[in-house]
Amino acid sequence: MPLPTVPYSVPDLSAGESLARAQAFYERLNHRRTVREFSARPIPEGVLEQCILAAGTAPSGAHKQPWRFVVVRDPIVKRAIREAAEKEEHDNYEWRMSEAWKRDLEPLGTDEHKPFLEVAPALIVVMALKHGDEGPEALHYYVQESVGIACGLLIAALHTAGLATLTHTPSPMGFLQKVLERPAHERPFVLLPVGYPAKGCQVPDLHRKSLGELSVWL
Questions:
Q1: The pTM is what?
Q2: Considering the domain boundaries, does residue 12 fall inside one?
Q3: Per residue in 123-134, pLDDT tens?
Q4: Would 30 be classed as within a structural domain?
Q5: First-to-last CA distance in the chain?
Q6: Other beta carbons less than 10 A from residue 140's beta carbon
Q7: pLDDT, tens digit, for every residue of 76-107?
């Protein structure tokens, strides 16, 4: 049976207001940077909850909402995640990554050591759900695409709330499922350390692609 419907509309903005909002949003997100030096400063109560709710507004295949956000603040669990992640990253840098990959990472100063996994006040592990909690018969569709969109909204929401993030994707990420004791149908998609930049935090002086480089207009 079709779902019931409700009225929907968007704000009737003038051309100038529409452009101003678009520019302001771009400028806000263009200021966002990946941070690897975090402060232990706690995140105010309620902020992460609202950002996760914002992420949950993402569109998804057949509206199955195939995501779960596991928030880790327990120091013991964070330490276990760091230890497991550093083991995987050691193997990555030692023999999994190609020389070209390591050369591309070298200017960013990354290595196998991940202290931010313990220092950041919160880790958000985004899990992609292969199927619903009811069992394999509760099918999900376009899971990777849906969860990827939700992650983009989550990062934007966290940045808007004045928080810094790092998109950490240790590969393989199966250890997260074990450490967090999540069921088999939940697969780690991305690990986001969240918090505030450490005092004196430095980030690489990166430049993003111009509009002409990243778009095609037909």
A1: 0.96
A2: no
A3: 999 999 999 999
A4: no
A5: 39
A6: 21
A7: 999 999 999 999 999 999 999 999 999 999 99
Count how many domains the chain has: 1
Name the helix (H) or strand (E) containing 202: none
Instruction: Give 168: exposed, middle or buried? Use CB within 10 Å, 0-12, 13-18, 19+.
Output: buried
Q: How confident is the model at residue 70 (pLDDT cuts 50, 70, 90)?
A: very high
* CATH code at position 115: 3.40.109.10
Kind and range of the H or E run holding 218 = none
Phi, psi at 172, each rounded to 5°: -75, 160
Please state whether 178 falls in left (phi above 0), alpha (psi between -120 and 50) or beta.
Answer: alpha
* Dihedral angle, C-alpha 28, 32, 123, 168, nearest 10 °: 140
The predicted structure's pLDDT at residue 66? 98
pLDDT in tens, 130-180: 999 999 999 999 999 999 999 999 999 999 999 999 999 988 899 999 999
Maximum CA pair distance of the chain? 57
Q: Which residues contact 45 (CB under 8 A, 6 or more apart)?
A: none
Query: Rounded mean pLDDT of the chain?
Result: 96
d(CA 203, CA 110): 12
Using omega within 30 degrees of 0 as the cis cutoff, is the peptide bond preceding 172 cis?
Answer: yes
In a domain, 208, yes or no: no
User: CA torsion 100→104→109→111, rounded to 10°?
Assistant: -40
- SS3 assignment, position 199: coil
Place of tokens 């376009």: 142
CA distance 46 to 163: 13
